[in-house]
Amino acid sequence: MRFLLETARLAVRSILRNVLRSALTVLGIVIGVAAVIGMVGIGQGTTAEVTGQVSDLGSDLLVVHPGSIMTGGQLAPLFDEADFLAIVDQINGIEAEPLVARSGSAVFGGESTATTIEGADNGAIDILGYDLAQGRVFAETEMRSGAPVCVIGSTVREELFGVGNPIGETIRVRQLACEVVGLLVSKGATLGQDDDNVVFLPVRTMQRRVAGSRDIDAILVTVNDPQRMGRVETEIEALMRERRGIGPLEEDDFDVADMAEVASMVSDITGILTGLLAALAAISLLVGGIGIMNIMLVSVTERTREIGIRLAVGATGGQVLLQFLVEAVFLSAIGGAVGILLGLGLAWLVTGLLSVTFIVDPVIIAVAFLFAAFVGVLFGYFPARRAARLDPIEALRHQ
Amino acid sequence: MSAAPVIELRGITKVFGRAAATVHALKGVDLSIASGEFVSIMGPSGSGKSTLMNITGLLDQPTAGHYLFGGAEVGDLSRDERALLRRHFLGFVFQGYNLLPRTSALENVELPLIYQGRPAAERHEAAMAALTRVGLAGRESHRPSELSGGQQQRVAIARAIVARPDVLLADEPTGNLDTARSREIMDLLQELNETEGLTIVMVTHDPKMAACSRRIVTVVDGLISDDATVGEAA
Ligand SMILES: Nc1ncnc2c1ncn2[C@@H]1O[C@H](COP(=O)(O)OP(=O)(O)OP(=O)(O)O)[C@@H](O)[C@H]1O
Ligand SMILES: [Mg+2]
């Protein structure tokens, strides 16, 4: 025990004796660990964000929209009111809400802001996870008649009204003058996109007075019994294929997305990216380990005489081995610690830029640190063994 | 001062190299050294003196023969077993001092005690005492590069005696020093031998240095050619 303490002291001294060389030696380890910690941190933050968003929407939600996720295109024909009504009529155990989206500007007095204009009834606004902060939602008659009323997000309010009260004011949305009846609670940003920069109009108002068509961009379907998610998905697919006249060998030109599926896809992608980067980082760690081995080999040669002296006064091979091994492990552990700090800094910076949660995972940190130390053991062992096996007489005679 | 000898070599041979390139450095050495003796080993260059010292000091193994240290056979011990014997019973002084560079005199002297696992306070005390013993009190914080050759050799002697070994082995301890400095080192060794009963085996080329010991063993071509008590020998 006392000897271990002496060994540790010796290792620290010999590392400090040549600070610059020690720093260059551990650079590979530092970069490797920083990359692992940084990338995993960013990946976890993003995944958590997406998962949180999806659980906001609810796992009982299906989104039906034209164009498939795979082809990504909006080239496929849009849905119309008849498609929506067919789903409502023919699929059991669901609630459905249409959605029409456009971009455009909202103007009040001298202020103007670019925003997303969504045609959505009360049900859809609720499904999308918005809560009312002030005022009211649409009245039944307003939705049925397509009245010029709107509910706005907090960003639009700030842009147009500052801190003033928007309720009862009339704003212009594209060409339509409409009365603000409600203000929504701020949802914040997801992955850099501001969810509060939005103006909601009743679907009918949107179709008649803004879009000028009866097209529907997406249909939100809430399944009453979560057990039936899969069944409902298949039923909707069959119905839409029939309605859109898709032959048995043709691909769907629409998509029914299960939110849990979307979430797992996103986290799969971040997982793959994280894995790839972690593999690169592991290679960097390996290169760092070889750097340590190289320097330790040089050190053993430089200190051959010292080793001879230690052997002569009664050090066993094991004690010499331990001395060099501890030095290598200290080096790599210091590199690991510095790398962890750097990586956390990197993750903090990037998650901040993406406006994503900054997550510190103590398990990953512990694993990275232990792995760095293990690299020290692995690559320090060979030089240390060489030192331990030196012949005392030859070592003493060395230059 | 007789009884069992502390060192007893019987028919020790040492062969270096292999096949055609073999060198027979020792060709069957018998040597017995009692506790408290001060023995000089002389002989021409390449006669096998250092080889004999290395085997006696358990730094090397004989090719054949028996080596009894304190009455026990040690000729066939493992590397680590020999290290343990060196740690507890032997002290070394080399021609080239062999101190750790960039390390204070005190820490150099403490080195054997570290491997003995002694606590820091005890190490410090013993090392200070040993440095005082060799006349270097006040120089404990100096590094080897800040000391003269004679002083460095004194540090080496302090290191060799700090763990109170049974035998001190010195291979040409004055080989790098001028006459006055050599004289001082010899006085110190003589004093250690007389006042503390330390057994000393020393290789030297200088008859004046050898004259300070009490017995002179002459090695020629790997064999002992003469073994005489100082004063009697020719
Ligand atoms: N490791 C070795 N490998 C091969 N030959 C060696 C080795 N060590 C010593 N020898 C040879 O053994 C012989 C005796 O060498 P040794 O060093 O014991 O002589 P020495 O008496 O100490 O000489 P000097 O007075 O010059 O120091 C020499 O011929 C030397 O070349
Ligand atoms: Mg020699």
TrEMBL record, chain A:
Keywords: Cell membrane, Membrane, Transmembrane, Transmembrane helix. GO terms for molecular function: transmembrane transporter activity. It is found in: Cell membrane. It is a multi-pass membrane protein. Residues 280-392 form the ABC3 transporter permease C-terminal domain. The chain crosses the membrane at residues 20-42, 272-300, 321-350, 362-382. Belongs to the ABC-4 integral membrane protein family. This is FtsX-like permease family protein. It comes from Histidinibacterium aquaticum.
UniProtKB/TrEMBL annotation, chain B:
The keyword DNA-binding does not apply. Gene3D superfamilies: P-loop containing nucleotide triphosphate hydrolases. GO terms for cellular component: membrane protein complex; plasma membrane. Residues 7-233 form the ABC transporter domain. SUPFAM superfamilies: P-loop containing nucleoside triphosphate hydrolases. Keywords: ATP-binding, Cell inner membrane, Cell membrane, Membrane, Nucleotide-binding, Transport. The keyword Ribonucleoprotein does not apply. InterPro entries: AAA+_ATPase (IPR003593), ABC_transporter-like_ATP-bd (IPR003439), ABC_transporter-like_CS (IPR017871), ABC_transpr_LolD-like (IPR015854), MacB-like_ATP-bd (IPR017911), P-loop_NTPase (IPR027417). One of its GO terms (molecular function) is transmembrane transporter activity. Belongs to the ABC transporter superfamily. Macrolide exporter (TC 3.A.1.122) family. This is ABC transporter ATP-binding protein. It comes from Histidinibacterium aquaticum. The lineage of its organism: Bacteria, Pseudomonadati, Pseudomonadota, Alphaproteobacteria, Rhodobacterales.
